[in-house]
Amino acid sequence: MMLEDFRKVMVNQQWEEGQYSHEDILRCMKKVIPLDLKQTVQVDKDLVIRAYYAGHVLGAAMIYAKVGDAAMVYTGDYNMTPDRHLGAAQIDRLKLDLLITESTYAKTTRDSRRAREREFLHAVHKCVSGGGKVLIPLFAVGRAQELCMLLDDYWERMNWKIPIYFSGGLTIQSNIYYKMLIGWTSQKIKDSCRMHNPFDFKHVCHFERSFIDNPGPCVLFATPGMISINAGFSFEVFKKWAPSEKNLVTLPGYCASGSIGHKLMSGKPKRIDIEGTHIDVRCQIHQLAFSPHTDSKGIMNLIEFLSPKHVILVHGEKPLMAFLKERVESELGMPCYYPANNESISIPTTQHHKMSATERFITSCTNEQTKDSLQRRKLFCGSNMSEANDDEKLAEGTLLMEKNKALKILCEDELVQLLGMDRHVIQYEPMAASRIAAAGELE
Q1: Which candidate in 24, 116, 118, 283 could, as Cys together with 20 as Cys, close a disulfide (CB 3.0–4.6 Å)?
Q2: 7-27 pLDDT tens trace
Q3: What is the pTM of this model?
Q4: Is the dihedral of CA 113, 115, 116, 120 positive or negative?
Q5: In the sheet where 98-102 sits, what is the strand order?
Q6: What backbone torsions phi and psi does residue 252 show, to the nearest 5 degrees?
Q7: Is 17 designated active site?
Q8: What angle do CA 182, 82, 181 make, to 5 degrees?
Q9: Is residue 441 predicted with pLDDT exceeding 80?
Q10: Among candidates 164, 155, 167, 156, which has minimal Cα distance to 134?
Q11: Rounded to 5 degrees, what are φ and ψ at 65?
């Protein structure tokens, strides 16, 4: 659904027309195999994968992968704290060579969820009470559902009739899946669902384009979240509502550099110039981190909990990743990397190999153990118990490594026989004391 939405955006904006088609998406989906949480899948004889709950958005998962003895976790995006509709990420304590983690908020520590919700509701309340319109630019999956739940509950308590709107078809479509897949939400949502599905919003309805110029207060959720220039309905509404001092634009998530959202967050501009035209910005601007990504504290907590031998940071801004790398190495003592696109990183791993032993080798070991046991008995008779306990017998053999064959341990005699060689033994006779003395005089 999201691939198709992105394809339409690309075609409409003429960014990368023809990169992939609707038919390509259908062919791709035929290859998708559903994976349940904590389900272990043996992909082939070497590769094993397992999915863990990541929070973030509905269906997000961390992936544990193991090839032989080398193990890693790739997180994608995750959230270490629960929000209003999803639980916190959950993963077992694993023995890892490598953790690849997102680092979107590498240097940001957020306030508590309750504090952010209070601040958000206060800003919205103040605006609509004064007759203003609230534009909330966000992405269709995740924040739309969380904030709709928050406002729906608040409207119910306040007994307000002020309209709350969804703008896009994608938001409505994705909400259907939230209603269906309650098992992936937080425990609180699962419990409350027995009485009423929390994603059946009582006060939220669909927004028509003709409503833009309607008088009176309202709240509108519109995509995309960054108010991208000439892309999406949030930009169209922003142009209409930004010139009024009564209105409010509240930005609940991350905005990339170059977007209008980023310009608004960087300091309230009085005017935004776009392709020869300008938009007067007199509306109120409110920024609040309702992002589904974990913050820097959450990233450090996950790294410390998993304690991998190596860490790679991805999905972040270079200066912030450099800051987080220093923290990981200095505070946790783990080698940390943040490679650029197309850059290769080599991670050393410890490998353990299974090997077989020949029957003759095992027999020789048994014989040696029998001899050793007799020696121990003599020691026991002599009341030298400590010496017997400290005595360890090592079995000596030869490791045979042949191409495309399992490793094997042989006796020395077997190796000589395998190579078709004669066994040569060198013995030294003891030298008499008189000869040793004579040799010393010659020197």
Answers
A1: 24
A2: 876 776 555 556 788 899 999
A3: 0.70
A4: positive
A5: 40-42, 47-53, 61-67, 70-74, 98-102, 310-314, 336-337
A6: -90, 0
A7: no
A8: 10
A9: no
A10: 164
A11: -130, 140
